[in-house]
Every structure is written in structure tokens, then in C-alpha cells.
TrEMBL record:
Belongs to the LptE lipoprotein family. GO terms for cellular component: cell outer membrane; transporter complex. Component of the lipopolysaccharide transport and assembly complex. Interacts with LptD. This is LPS-assembly lipoprotein LptE. It comes from Orrella marina. InterPro entries: LPS_assembly_LptE. It comes from the Bacteria. Keywords: Cell outer membrane, Lipoprotein, Membrane, Palmitate, Signal. Together with LptD, is involved in the assembly of lipopolysaccharide (LPS) at the surface of the outer membrane. Required for the proper assembly of LptD. Binds LPS and may serve as the LPS recognition site at the outer membrane. GO terms for biological process: Gram-negative-bacterium-type cell outer membrane assembly; lipopolysaccharide transport. GO terms for molecular function: lipopolysaccharide binding. The gene is lptE.
Amino acid sequence: MLALTILLTACGFRLQGTTPLPFERLSITIPDNTQFGADVRRAIRAASPDTVIVSNEPLLKGEKPNFQAQLQQVSVSRNIREVSLNPQGRVEEYELTLIFTFRLVNARSEIILPDTTLVTVRDLPYDDNVVQAKEGEIATLFEQMQRSMVDRLMRRITSPDVIQTYERLERKAAQEK
């Protein structure tokens, strides 16, 4: 076991770990009174403990924003679609879809990450003899899909290209001053 560990570290292998966000103050327009909003905030705090999540209050005319970047929710939707019917015309399978569109902008409203849409789809076999159980299963599946969506969102906003774009915009703004 020790030899394997030494061999792996010698070749440069290391666990991915978390990538902190390049900004210290982040505003989020995803409602914080939803499970999805709470999960996003929790994931950001875990991945980037030095980043402070600031309140998303409207600015007065001429007032400067108190954030360096803002994660904006453009849209979110949940859809349930009938995929197949049995010979009696009853639903045999549903398709659950969760669609989330967001963008990341800086305090000057310059786009760091343009509108990005994340889609998660799950199939659910259905039996109308156990309606209550299937309704609970649908709710559980949507919760799992949201957690998966939060993970994908975090990977996207902490990606190297997003960090480089933010830093390039900040250097440009500093040169213009």
C-alpha cells in the first residue's frame, strides 16, 4: 500500500479537491427560501470559505454594488412528461426534467459567464396502483436532480475559464482607472 502511494505521488497524481472562487463578495439572485437556493449557498460556502455571500438588495440610483460578482438565476423549470402508455391508455413511464439557466456577471454588469443552461432528465416507471408512493418518489427524484444540478453549477462557476475571465475583466478595469 505504501509503495502504491509513493508511486502515485511520484507521478504527480493528486485528488481534485475544491477550487475557491476568485472573488471575495458574491451576490446570488436565486431565492434563498427555496431548497435549491439554500443548497447553492451551502455549496459555495463549502467550496470557497473565503467568499462572503452578500444580500441581494436593489441598489439606489448612483449606489455602487457591494459585491464583486453576481450569480443570476435566469430561469428554472420542472417538467413531467408522459413517455409511454399501456394498452389501456394508462401512463407506464414519466420523464422528469429540471432545467436551470444562469449567468455570472461582475459588479459592472460585464458578463463573466454568459447564459448557461443545465438540464437534468430522469425516467420514472409508473404504476397507478401505488399513486402516493410514486408521488413521493417523484419528489425524491426532483430533490436528487437538484443536488446534481448544484454540483454541476459549482463545477461550472469554479472552472478555470470562468476564473480567468473574471481576472481579465478586473485587470482591464484596473488599467482603465
